[in-house]
Amino acid sequence: MTIHVTPIPRLIDLAAPAFTLGTANVAGSAETSIASDSTLLAFDTTNPTAVAASAAVGSATVASRRDHVHSGITVQSSLVFIGTDTSGSTREITGLSSTYQTYLITIENVTTSVEASNAMLFAVGDSSGFDTAGGDYSYHCQASTDAATTYVAISDDSAAYIYLNPVSSAGIASGEGFSAVLYLDIGNGTTQPKLTGETYYNTTTGAISGGVVLARRTAGITLDRIQLTYNTGTGIQSGTMSCWGIRKS
User: Fold this and answer.
1) What is the pTM assigned to this prediction?
2) Residue 93's closest CA among 223, 225, 230, 244?
3) pLDDT digit string (tens) for 71-107?
4) Taking 70 as the threshold, does the pLDDT of residue 10 lie above it?
5) Diameter over CA atoms, the chain
6) In this structure, how many other beta carbons lie within 10 angstroms of the beta carbon of residue 145?
7) Is the sign of the CA dihedral 70, 76, 77, 80 positive or negative?
8) Which residue, of 39, 107, 129, 156, has the greatest Cβ tally within 10 A?
9) Looking at the predicted structure, is the pLDDT value of residue 8 above 70?
10) Which CATH class is domain 79-246?
11) 68/57 Cα distance (integer angstroms)
């Protein structure tokens, strides 16, 4: 007996998938079929947009792959680190320039070897060195304590250094040292550099003391460095001075 096999014609044409991704279910109208091993369009090869500061709904009809990577946002700080000094008998930082008009200076827990009658001194300089000549600085500084309602102040309009605090008795034990937050306007080479800020430290009795300093160099200078030292003892024993330029934009 002979068996005859008659092919059955395929009645359905298989089309490429044309599904779309959207935000709602919508019925299609095409009267075609797709094969079970077809590929669906879900992704594209466009780089994802950069991370943004604000949200957006978007309009793309395809998605990024699971392992996609967004480019980041460059965050620009308004403070530009210039330098720090933590060793030696003075604290000195160079690298200041007209790139920034104003600088932030922090002084942290600076101590000396002599506990009585000590004061913190500040000076600026240029490429030839630090200026500690008599008569080049004018300052007024004051201090009060949490143990009294009065305050003391000193001033000088012809000094070799800027006194950041009245001659007093800052403690020299760990955590008692002299600290300050200062702002320095370096001038423009012909105008006078100006300094202001606040100081704080523990006295030998444990009281907290501090106050405001106002100072200037009495003539312009192409300022590129700052120096911190003590008026007594063998100089600075410990502590840090750091400096940042303040960016305007």
Assistant:
1) 0.73
2) 225
3) 877 777 899 999 999 999 999 999 999 999 999 999 9
4) no
5) 130
6) 18
7) positive
8) 107
9) no
10) mainly beta
11) 18
Where are the domains positioned within the chain?
A: 79-246
Q: Which residue has the tokens 């306007």?
A: 185
Long-range Cβ contact pairs of 130-134 (< 8 A, separation 24 or more)? 130/92, 130/225, 130/227, 131/217, 131/221, 132/160, 132/161, 133/160, 134/158, 134/159, 134/160
Q: What is the dihedral sign for C-alpha 21, 27, 28, 32?
A: positive
Secondary structure (DSSP) of 29-50: ----B--TT-----B--PPPPP
As given in the structure block, the two tokens for residue 220 are 């312009």
- What torsion do the CA atoms of 111, 152, 197, 117 make, to the nearest 10 degrees? -20
CB atoms within 10 A of CB 178: 29
- pLDDT per position as a tens digit, 137-171: 999 999 998 888 888 999 999 999 999 988 776 77
Q: DSSP letters along 74-119, please?
A: ----SEEEEEEE--SSSEEEE---TT-SEEEEEEEEEEES--SSB-
What is the reported pLDDT for 87? 94
